[in-house]
Amino acid sequence: MRMPLTPTTRLDIALLTLRLGLLVDFFVHGSQKLFGAFGGGGVAGTGAFLASIGANPGPLWAVVVGLVEFGGAICVGVGLLTRFAAAAVALDMFTAIALYNWPHGFFAETATGGWEINMLIIAMCVALVLAGPGAYSLDRVVVRVRQNQRAASLAS
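and the corresponding structure tokens:
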């Protein structure tokens, strides 16, 4: 069966789907850490947890992690500074594995949570770092505006 869309359009839709999935996940997790939304601990609760696993000062790292996740979610979702934001989220997940998840094993279904989901998120982020955000992104709009400005300045 032949797909009605071009391969490039299918890739752009796939990248958009990937970005939107990360947006939902990290918007919620970042909101938990920064604002206490969705049953999260806010900066105080997240800071206490982070301090308990050796990330001191806990409140400072709670803000940093919350901003990476919340801000990274928005940037990845709308496709703005996508490669940078995806790399930051991947580093956030790598740090989570190193500080907490690794000793709990691979499977996320365990009571303490393994590193399985973190690894999938890292893979998603690496794919975005390598492929870029695709056509349906603000990064693409910025590139087009810059190209038009450059063309206009060369023409004058």
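(Above: one complete record from the training split.) The chain has one domain: 8-155.
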